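2024-03-11 09:14:02 INFO receiving multi-entity request
2024-03-11 09:14:02 INFO entity count = two
2024-03-11 09:14:03 INFO echoing inputs for audit
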Amino acid sequence: MISQQVMTMIATLEKTDTAYSTAAPAVVAGLDAVNKNYGNIRALKGVNFCVHGGELVALLGPNGAGKTTAVKLLLGLLQPNAGKVRVFGGDPTNPENRMRTGAMLQVGRVPETLRVCEHIDLFSSYYPNPMPLSSVLAAAGLERLAGRKFGDLSGGQRQRVLFALAICGNPDLLFLDEPTVGLDVEARRLLWEQIRELVGQGRTVLLTTHYLQEADALADRVAVINKGEIIAEGTPAEIKAQTAGKRIRCITDISVEVLRKIPGVTQVREDREAIELHVAEAEPVLRELLARDARLSGLEVNAAGLEEAFLALTQDSSKNGDQRQEL
Amino acid sequence: MSTATMALPTPQIQRSPAHTIAIYIKEAKYEFLKYLRLRMYTISVLTFPIMFYVLFGLVLNSNQSIAGTRVSTYLIPSYGTFGVIAASLFATAAGLASDRGLGWLQVKRASPMPPFAYFSAKMFTSLVFSTVIVLALFALGIAFGGVRISAGTSARLLATLVAGSLPFSAMGLALGYFTGPNSAPPTINLIYLPMSFCSGLWVPFMFLPKVVQKIALVLPPYHLSQLALGVVGSGTHEPAIRHWEVLAAFTMICLGVARIGFHRDQEKMYG
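2024-03-11 09:21:47 INFO inference complete, emitting structure
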């Protein structure tokens, strides 16, 4: 009797144990120490990056950072020079993987003489369990454009068709390469809503963007990529904390050397007759500046742009290097 | 990244043969529609052979004959070959070069489309337009040119010409892999117009200068046109098997080149 009880207990324990180990969100797509070169250009340098099931990850970076290369590797459109690319635990080129994957890429020209509904009909037919046409049209906001030829659409409408083609196969995993490029503010918000809804349905999304705001609005996790390297990774809040800062611009007689010594100033740059300061917090530095220079003029305070954010991040990632001395 | 986290239950998704066939049909249907609505394609591909035939076969030389065959009959295989080549090359090479160069093929490749469906759709489109051109020539010839050929001969002529679309579709795929979106159309013209002339598609073979006749022997359009002329009992009367051999060899070479391009493309895609 007792031994039997113990046995069942052990069995249950084992069960819960294995249940725990798989309960952690599994990696759906990942790059493992991946290098990718185009001739002499090193597009990705030892990139480790992964997307877990059900999350929306934003790959954030400036143009030419390697975002699209990462997406194409994960789609099996490119082969890495070194490292491993895995999707659903296998090779990204597996036809079974592609049936569970949707992709929105940047395209120069889509066949223009086919109608929106025809494009969707064709792509839907590739998948084993596609979404109904009406749902696809609704999700992409194309209900009124179904009968239009692709060539007659505006730039934003074309983007929405490409989005429709990415989602029509009812994919578990969705790659969106700069989905909102060229969209106006309203269209961008609409697409964001659609993307949120897809994630709400339990799909996994990898999105690339060069808008910090977009990553912030959508992503569970952000990976910042620059010059082929992931330089920061975390929740949007964590990334913003790292990139937070203000830019102060003014005309002043205070010398650059003195400015650099003011606490909180991370960067000083001369710009024509003015000085640009990059600071963590604006107020204490402003007090200091105004106290030291009564003739200070042309004062402007701005939130640091993405450019500065990237700069700040790159410098953070090489803290121990000698870059600080340049400041 | 640990490999353990990679273990994810992968449901085996298999596509039924019926579903695969349905994809091939849909791909072909939309590829055909795409070209049918592309006025630049239909006008240049359909009107040129038909216009030439009307002009040289019906209006100007209708009462004459070439090598014992009425001009209006003789020119159906000639301009038929010319039309088939243009329809096949432009449907394959120009489309492929553009899809490849401007990113559309990548979107297709990222999807679960069976890769061969894409190529077979292009070949199918070439076949359909080739058929339309040849049938249009038949109709014009019979209605206005006094062409009298039996149903059996017509069927054989049509089959020969339409089968001839395959070698040139293969050539188009090879060209499409080694030209860009902008350079494809001029490259096609630069190759197929001189090739058509030297093969005797515009000026009958026997009226060509001797040097050009020698060149013609190595040109695929010459062999296709001679096969077609043979069906109506005209042409140079060489054994048909010779022509078929040349066309088959040419097809294999083109497919080989296209294959090289296909594999080169897998790696040479720039982000």
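2024-03-11 09:21:48 INFO post-check: Chain A touches chain B through 56 residues (CB under 8 Å).
2024-03-11 09:21:48 INFO post-check: Residues 2-23 of chain A form the longest helix (22 residues).
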